[in-house]
C-alpha cells in the first residue's frame, strides 16, 4: 500500500469510536441523547487537536491520548447500562447478549490503556516494543471471545 500504516491506525481509532458510539446509542436509547451529543462533540474536538499535532514519529502517543475519551465513554456508557438494568428488573446477566459485549469492551479498553499511554517510556526502558503489543493482542482475543459468546447467547434466545 502506498499509504503508511500509521495513518490507518489513526483513522481506525476514530472509526472504532464511531462504532462504539453507535452501539451504545442504540443500546441506551434516546433518553441519553444529550450525553451522546456531548460525547461526540468532545471526541471530535480531541481528534482534531490530535490531527493538528500528528506526526509520524509520535502517532502512537497521540493515539494513546485519544484513547482517554474513548475509555471514559465506554466506562460511563457501561455504568449507565448497568444502572438502568438493575433499576428496571433483576435478571441473570448471563442470558443478556449485551452483557458479553460490554464486558469484552471493558476488558479490552482497560487492559491496554496504561500500556498505550506509557508505550514510548516502556520502549525506552525495556527496549521491548514488540512485547508490549502482546497485551493488546491478548485483550483483543478476550474481547472477541466475549463477543462470540454474546452472539451465541443472542442466537440461542431467538430460537
Considering the chains and any ligands shown, give keywords for the structure.
159 residues, mainly alpha, 0% strand
Describe the structure.
- It is globular and about 50 Å long.
- It is an all-alpha fold and 159 residues long.
- It has helices at 5-28, 33-53, 59-88, 97-117, 119-126, 129-158.
- The mean pLDDT is 87.
- It starts with a helix and ends with a helix.
- The chain contains six helices and no strands.
- Helix 1 (5-28) runs antiparallel to helix 2 (33-53).
Distance between the termini: 44 Å
Report Rg: 17 Å
Q: What percentage of residues falls in helices of 4 or more residues?
A: over 70%
Principal-axes shape call: globular
SSE order, one letter for each helix or strand: HHHHHH
List segments where confidence is low: pLDDT < 50 over at least 5 consecutive residues. Answer: none
Amino acid at each position: 500500500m502506498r499509504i503508511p500504516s500509521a495513518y490507518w491506525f489513526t483513522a481506525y481509532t476514530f472509526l472504532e469510536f464511531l462504532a462504539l458510539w453507535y452501539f451504545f446509542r442504540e443500546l441506551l436509547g434516546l433518553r441519553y441523547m444529550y450525553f451522546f451529543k456531548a460525547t461526540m462533540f468532545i471526541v471530535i474536538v480531541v481528534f482534531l487537536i490530535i490531527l493538528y499535532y500528528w506526526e509520524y514519529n509520535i502517532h502512537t502517543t497521540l493515539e494513546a491520548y485519544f484513547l482517554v475519551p474513548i475509555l471514559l465513554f465506554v466506562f460511563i456508557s457501561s455504568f449507565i447500562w448497568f444502572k438502568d438494568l438493575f433499576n428496571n428488573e433483576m435478571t441473570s446477566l448471563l442470558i443478556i447478549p449485551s452483557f458479553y459485549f460490554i464486558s469484552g469492551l471493558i476488558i479490552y479498553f482497560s487492559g491496554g490503556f496504561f500500556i498505550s499511554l506509557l508505550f514510548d517510556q516502556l520502549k525506552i526502558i525495556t527496549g521491548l516494543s514488540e512485547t508490549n503489543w502482546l497485551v493488546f493482542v491478548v485483550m483483543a482475543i478476550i474481547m472477541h471471545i466475549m463477543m462470540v459468546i454474546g452472539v451465541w447467547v443472542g442466537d440461542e434466545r431467538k430460537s
